[in-house]
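Researcher: I'd like a structural prediction for the single chain below. Treat it as a standalone chain; there are no partners to consider.
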Amino acid sequence: MVGKQEHSREFFGGHARLVACPGHADERGMLTPFAFDQLPFAPCRAFTVSGTPAGGVRGGHGHRAGMQLLVCLHGRIEVLMRHQGEEAALTLESAAHGLLVGANVWCQQRYVTAGSVLLVFASEPYDPASYIREPA
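Model: Treating it as a single chain, here is the predicted structure.
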């Protein structure tokens, strides 16, 4: 479940923010539920990014509308964000936190470790015409 109000970092006046994704751990491992009714948007689709070599770069765009939640399921992924001339960066390295990204925030992900896996929940259908290719 993603905590709507729980965040430890906010970027660009709230257009992007780190949110807690509480999990349940025991001797068998970790279970991290994602309750869609706890998100500030209704997910329309989900996808994973995997198989990217260490140092590989993905993303490199923003979206004109909608929101996304980025969660690193495995490995370590650095996220560079730009919005209205400002820049911020953070590292995702567990499913304990996700990055909520709003419209018009340009993002690029650098896969620090081989085998890293990114899970993305998106509020909008896939539409490359909605991409913002150049950093804002």
